[in-house]
Amino acid sequence: MQGLISLRSSPCFLHSCPRSSNTKHLVSKPHCSLRKRSTSSLRSTLPSISLSLFGSGFFLGPLIDGLHSRVNLVVYQNGSIDIGPLHTNIWVPPLLGLFYCSVGLLQLFLDQRAPSKVPEGSLEKTAIALVTWIGFTLASIIGLCCPLAEIPIMKLFHLWYYPQANIEILGQGLVTWTTTCYFVYTPFLISLSRWLRSMITPANKSA
């Protein structure tokens, strides 16, 4: 009986304690702080990541793209140059640098908005990036939009054309395999951007 009286006299028995609401606040605060920390981290490393992505596209992109010209899948016109065995166009390096930088930074921006923890970037996770819904969606959008973006470049500046075009859009010949190329290209850029961020961020913190 004495124990029952002591229970009734306790403050938590007479007044319900807001444990659940406090718990929610305690859980949400670390999530918000982590997101703010991630945002500030990306802003501080943005110039270095952008430069690295642009440089990767500028130098690595033409080497991969040069495979198409060697087998006559694409023919370069105005501005075509030969750099050793590589046959390319003078505008290809900056265009691919801009492509790498745009897709990579877009992926990092989407990673910040993701509700779950994003895996650290590594070159071994290129294929895994495609099976995630956000990676698949981004690859699909790029696979459809980038071939269409080539149309004004080819029509206005005559930088290249596809001799084996099997589809015509807005009076310009295209090949359907370019969609597949851009689609497969995207997971590589997703993984590359995450890998560069994981490498650059610790270096800035140590500095």
UniProtKB/TrEMBL annotation:
Source superkingdom: Eukaryota
Record keywords, A-Z: Membrane, Transmembrane, Transmembrane helix
Keyword Transmembrane annotated: yes
Membrane-spanning segments: 45-64, 90-110, 130-154, 174-196
Protein name: Uncharacterized protein LOC105136996 isoform X2
Organism (species): Populus euphratica (Euphrates poplar)
Gene name for this UniProt entry: LOC105136996
